Amino acid sequence: MSQIHSGRPWLLYGLLTTSLSLNLYMVTHRPPPARPALAVPSGEPGPLGTIEAIEPTPRGVSVPVEVVPASMTPATEARIPVESGVAMSDPDWSIMDEEVTHSLSRTFAAADPENGAALSAVYSRLFHWDIDLRRDLRKGDRIRVAWKKGDNGIEIAVASLKSGKLGKTLTAYRYQRRSDDFPSYWLEDGTEIARRLKESPLSDYEMVTSLLKDRPSHAGMDFKAPEGTAVLATRAGTVTRTNWNTRANGKCIELKFSDGTLAKYLHLSKTGVKPGQRVANGAVLGASGNTGRSTAPHLHYQLNKGKRVLDPITVHGTMTRSIQPGERNAFGSDVARLDALLGNALARR
């Protein structure tokens, strides 16, 4: 054995060299280990379905991100914008952008024969405090409105009127203050468009749907409010009668002030006072309703002195509400969102 090792070392060296070469080849040609399938080529099905190729986003460009919480189904997917204050347009909103060619109602009807009349009625309630929309519209005035049909009829999110008569554009933003039961419409500076009576027959309501001057045949103010809203005495007085001419008035109350003015409350759901009863200013007289010749829940409030019909605005005076400082940021965010809704939708037309 010692003779072979000492006499023929080349044989041992040859065997060692062959083994080393074989191991080196196996190491350098080993296939890569299998990894989990994290991506699938574009258009090919994978474990999670087909994955589309994603183009890189240029720097400085904001992209809306779609987020679906685990508790939401695809049908209720939430679309959340990256930039705060600018929301994606709600696909349910319809946009109207029209130049006034004739009356307001005919302009709306020409743009949308099916919904124009109803939309015109709601739109006109926003600006009737500042302009007589029957007489003061001019050819070339422009209306813009974002609206949709809701459970309670036409709903307006934001609307504007470019008026030649006023020499400016009015924009009404729908917003609900934290302390209010109902949303209202506000100018961009945080001033409420509608005026409020200083002595009001309702402590809160959705909106005034009709003023005395709106229709020649209408003798009072209409307040939109849910049935059962408490109706208040606007001044101290004596109840003169209740529930007369019920076919037209429904349940109703007449109250006489000390100066002889008669205050009439019509379309009530119930009355809580009797003729001859003395009531104090602010006392609850009954509850609002939808009785008599009425097409929707509201309170008709009317003032008469002798044969004259008095304007409640003149008799009681008005006040203007504002957004409080602590709520200005929230209101500003809503204004930006509604401006984007109206502007973005118009840009897509």
Notes on the structure:
With 349 residues, this protein is an alpha+beta fold. The chain is globular, with a radius of gyration of 37 Å. Strands 11, 12, 13, 14, 15, 16, 17, 18, 19 and 20 form a ten-stranded antiparallel beta sheet that branches. The chain has a five-stranded antiparallel beta sheet with strand order 5-6-7-8-9, with helices on both faces. The protein folds into two domains: 94-194 and 328-347, Nuclear Transport Factor 2, Chain: A, CATH 3.10.450; 196-319, Glucose Permease (Domain IIA). Helix 3 (104-111) packs across helix 4. The protein contains seven helices and 21 strands. The longest helix is centred in the N-terminal third of the chain and has 20 residues, at 9-28. Helices cover 21% and strands 29% of the residues.
Summarize, please.
This protein is an alpha+beta fold and 349 residues long. The protein has helices at residues 2-7, 9-28, 104-111, 116-127, 246-249, 312-316, 328-347; strands at 45-46, 49-50, 65-67, 78-80, 94-99, 142-150, 153-163, 168-175, 184-186, 196-197, 207-210, 221-224, 230-232, 237-242, 251-256, 262-271, 278-279, 284-288, 298-305, 308-310, 318-319.
